[in-house]
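CO-FOLDING WORKSHEET

Operator: S.A.
Ligand of interest: NAP
Run index: 299
Mode: holo prediction, single chain
Checklist:
[x] sequence pasted
[x] SMILES validated
[ ] output reviewed
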Amino acid sequence: MILLVGATGDLGGRVARLLRESGQDVRCLVRPATDDSPLRAIGAGIVRGDLTEPATLRPACKGVETVIATATVITRRFAGTSSATIRDVDEVGMGHLVDAAEAAGVQRFVYLSFPIGSASLRTPLEQAKLAIEERLANSPMRAVVVLSDGLQEVQLSRAARFDLAAGKAAVIGKGDTPRRLVSTGDIAALLAAVALEPDPPARIEVGGPEPLTKKEIIGIAGELAHRPLKVQRMPRLVARLATLVLKRRNDAMASALGVGLSSDIEEATWDDKALRQRGINPKSVTEFLKEQAQGLASH
Ligand SMILES: NC(=O)c1ccc[n+]([C@@H]2O[C@H](COP(=O)([O-])OP(=O)(O)OC[C@H]3O[C@@H](n4cnc5c(N)ncnc54)[C@H](OP(=O)(O)O)[C@@H]3O)[C@@H](O)[C@H]2O)c1
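OUTPUT RECEIVED:
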């Protein structure tokens, strides 16, 4: 039995579908007020619970061999639909899940994080990811930590101020550091694979097939949209100060800005090998943008 925590999310939902398609027994921890019908429709079992309610986590882990945890509250914080903070959910709550999994005899814990380097301002999300990685490093369970570069569907979306339809994009910093944005579907496939393979690595740094700077991405998007994107810039110093000021007042905004700033400073040293080794043919940023541009043209 595999327990998925975060299965009503975009990435988490893809993991659930992939595992069900391959015939796995899947149980999903779903918050009490969240719609579980798409998960029921694919034959997943449902257990109601919440990372901020430790008493709900022990029964959720009963009889489970592997936990896959992709849950985060950051999107719900941006949407204004969660009063629980990133520290409450992503750090303390996820820590409770690790405790419950250990107590229930879970053998493998697959955890999704992202690479956090020396340029990090230790935003609430980075703090939470590092705390859980450390907790898992000291666990008797077999931990598999997947450190993914930015997700194309998130980082190249209107929410991240990349708006192909309106012809606008924001750049934090200089925009000349190559990163490897990766498709959400490819990371979902990787998580599903490492949950099942006999001898997975303890840490996997991974990104997409195409190293591109933000400026290069904006150039490609402009060509595909047949008009250059208008660029709004936030200098590194401004982003740094805003992140530090927001850390206490708006944990989601501080975390998003901090990740944007780190990505502008720290080049991707990882590649797409972990995907290809598992037969996943990774989607490039150019392919992703082509799909977006075609979607706009057909509307
Ligand atoms: N964005 C990026 O560029 C990037 C890069 C690397 C890694 N990641 C990682 O990717 C993951 C995001 O996955 P996603 O796209 O599926 O996220 P998502 O769409 O924002 O979904 C978040 C999930 O977490 C659940 N959740 C929130 N609060 C919870 C709580 N208190 N108890 C239990 N579950 C709770 C949500 O449940 P409800 O539906 O009930 O709210 C939902 O299932 C995160 O781990 C993130 O750090 C993202």
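REVIEW:
The first strand starts at residue 2 and ends at 5.
Residues 6-12, 31, 34, 50-52, 70-73, 75-76, 84, 89, 93, 112, 114, 148, 150-151, 154-155 surround NAP (CB under 6 Å).
[x] output reviewed
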